[in-house]
Amino acid sequence: MDIKGFLSSEGRRKSFGDEYKSFKLLGGERRRQSVATWTTLRPFLPAAVPLLEELNDLHEEKRNVVIDHHRNNVKQRHKSGDLTPNDAGPIDGSVNKSAVPWYKKDFTENSLEDDVNKSQNSWSAADQQLAQDVSSTAVLTSRVGEEIEDLEITEIDRGNWSGRFDFLMSLLGYSVGLGNVWRFPYLAYSNGGGAFLFPFIIMFILLGFPLMFLELSFGQFAALGPAAIFDRICPLLNGIGHAMVCVSCMVAFYYTVIIGWAFLYMFKSFASELPWERCHKDWASERCYSHKDAADCTATNGSVYYLQNCFNKTEVERLNISSLAHNKSDRAPPAQDYFERDILGVTESIEDIGGLQWQIVLCLLLTWTLTFLSLSKGVKSVGKVVYFTALFPYVVLTILFFRGVTLDGAKDGIIYYLTPKFDKLIVAETWVKAAVQIFFALSPAWGGLITLSSYNKFHNNCFKDSLIVGVGNVCTSIYAGFVIFSIVGYLAKELETPIDTVVDEGPGLAFIVFPDVVTRLPIPPLWSFLFFFMLITLGMGSEFALLETVMTAVQDTYPPLRQKKVFVVLGVCVFGFLGGLVVCTEGGMYVLQLMDTYSASFAVFIMAILECLIIGWIYGADRFLRDIETMIGQRSKFWHYFFIFFWKFLTPATLIFLLLFNLVDYKRMSYKKKPYPVWAELLGWFMTFIPVLVIICMGIWRFYRSPKEKTFVMKLKKMLHDTPKWGPASKIPRSDSSLDIEGGKSRIVTNPGFTTTGNETRI
C-alpha cells in the first residue's frame, strides 16, 4: 500500500479520520442497538486493522519522508496563496487549536519552521495513538462475534412480554396455585386459627418478599433463565440454575396428573346426577354411606339405611343392627370411595404399582396438549392465556364464597377458622410451617421467578411487581380460607360431627371433601363444574411457568434451538407426558405423594441459601442493589439497607434454620397410615439429592474446564467471580449505552452511571 501517497492526500486523510471517528462514535452510542449494525461493522474492522498496523510499523525514515513531503507542500501552498489568513483564523496567532487543524494555520516565513516541527510532533503523537488504536481495534474485533452471539440470544430470539400485565398475570398464575386453596386453610386451622396469620405475614416479610424481589430483579437484569444466569455471575456454582430446572421438571411431571384428575372430574360433572352422589356396587366399600340413599330409605316409616341397603323396622329388630346403622364414625362418603377405588384404583402399597388407569392417561394427554398449544409460541402466546387462567379462579372463589356464607353452618366454620389460639405462637413448629407455606407459595429457588422476569423490559419496575404479587398471594390464601371453611362448616353441620373431623388438606380436600359437599347443594353438577374448572386454571397457571423454566433452560443452553421453538416445546411435552405415566397407574397415588414430599423439599432450601450467598456475599448485596437502581431508579435508603440486611443475614439464617428443623423433624413417609418400604424412601431421598448432585458435579466440571491459573487459590477466586459476560442484557442500553475504547480495553457505559469493565461492575 502506498502510505506516502495515501497520507499526501488531504481529502483521503481527512476522510479516513472522519470514518474512524464515525466508527468509534457508532460503536460508542449504538453498540448494542442491533445485530444488523454490528454485521455492517464487522467487515470494516478486519480491513482497518492492517491499515493501522502498517501505519504503526512506519520506520523513522518513512516518517521523515512524510514530514518532508508536507514541508514542501506547505511551502508551495503558502507561496501560491492557497493558505490565507481567512483560512487560518486571527493573524495574531490566537488560533483555536481544537477547532483549526495545524495545516490551516496562518503560515509565515518565521512560523513555517515552527509549524513543521509541530507537524513532526503531531505525527509522532499520532503514531503512538495509532499503535494504541491497533490494540484497541483488535480487542474490539475479537469481541464483535461474542456481542453478536449475545444479541442473538437476548434481543432477537428470546422475545419479551407484550406488556407489563402479561408478566403480572403470568407471575400471579405461577405463585397462586393449588396450595393456596387446598393447603393453607388446613394449616391455618391446625396451627392456631386466626393467630396463624401473624407468623404467616411475618414470614412473608422476612423470607418470601426478599427472595421474590431478589429473583425477579436477578432475572430481569441479565435477561437469562436460571441455567445460563448463574454461569455468568458465579461459574463455580453454575449448577444451581440447572438444579432449579431439575426441580421444576420433577414437579411438572406429577402436577399435570393432578390437573388431569380435575379434567376427569369436570367431564364427569356433565351429568344430571353426579356419579359419586350414591354408592355404586362397582366401587363402593362396605363403609360407603350415601346421604341421598339414606334419605330415600328413611322416607319409609321405620326403615334404616345400612350397608347400602334399606331395612324395614322388622328386619332391624330381627338382625339387631340399629346401633350399627346409626354409628357415624365408621362411615365413608361416596366421594371418597369413588376417588380412591374407581378413579385411582389405589392398590395396597407402592410395591404393587398396578396397571394404567386409562381415563387418567387420556386426561393427562389432554393436559399436555393444551400446554403445548399455550406455550408453542413462547411468552407471546402464554401471555394471553394467563389472563384467563390467573383471573378466572378469583371469579369462582367469589361465587363459592357468596354461596358458602349462605349455607347453614357456614358461620361456625368461619369462626373456627378465625378463632385465634395464641398458645400455638410459642410452638416452633407453627412458625416453621408458616415459613414453609410462604416459601412454597411464592416458589423462589424453583427457577420460575427468574425465568418469567427474564422476559421483562429492562426498566420494568420489578420492585412494585414483587409487592403486588406477593401481597396478592397472601390475600388469596386468606380469602380461600373463608371459602373453604364456610363450606366445611356446612358439611360438619350436615354430618353432625365436629369440624376438625371433616377438614382435610391436599387432594383429600379437593377430590373428597368438596365433591361430597356439592352433592348436598342445589344443582350439584353446576357447582362441581365450577370448582374443578377453577382447579384446572389454578394448576395450568403454575404448570406454564414450570415448563417455561425448563424450555428457557434448553434454549439458553443451546441458542440455535430458539429458531425451532415449537419442536422444543413438543419435545418437552412428550417427555413430560411419558414421565407422568407412572403416576397414572393404580399405585400412582403412592408415587405422587413420594414426589410431592421429596422432589421440592430440602434441595430447594439449599439452593435458596446458595443464592443468598452469591448475591449477598460473593457478588455483593450493595453492588447488586446499585445494579437494580440502573433498572428501576434509586429506592429510599430504608429499602436499600433493608435488602442488604435480609439478603446477607436474616433470610439465609432463616433458611438454614428451616432446613435443619425439617431434617431433625423428619418422619417416615406413610399413606393412609401405611408406611412406605425402605427402598421407596431411599428413592425419595435420591430425588431430593438429584439437584444437590447437579450443583456439585457441574461445579467440579466447570472448575476442571476453566483456564489454568498460577495457583489453586487464584483459580478458585476467578471461578467465584462474575465473568465478562455478566451484566445487563444486550437489549438494555438501546439509547443509554456507549462503547469506549480506552487503553486496549472495551467498556460499556450505561446511564445512569452503570459501568462494566472486564470483570468489574460498578456505579
From TrEMBL:
Family (UniProt): Belongs to the sodium:neurotransmitter symporter (SNF) (TC 2.A.22) family.
GO MF annotation list: glycine:sodium symporter activity; metal ion binding
Entry protein name: Transporter
Keywords on record: Disulfide bond, Membrane, Metal-binding, Sodium, Symport, Transmembrane, Transmembrane helix, Transport
UniProt-annotated stretches for the region Disordered: 75-95, 727-746
Membrane-traversing stretches: 165-184, 196-218, 239-267, 356-373, 385-402, 434-455, 467-492, 526-547, 567-592, 598-620, 641-663, 683-704
PROSITE patterns found in the cross-reference section: NA_NEUROTRAN_SYMP_1, NA_NEUROTRAN_SYMP_3
Residues at which Na(+) binds: G173, V176, N180, N473, L538, S542
Record PANTHER family: SODIUM/CHLORIDE DEPENDENT TRANSPORTER, TRANSPORTER
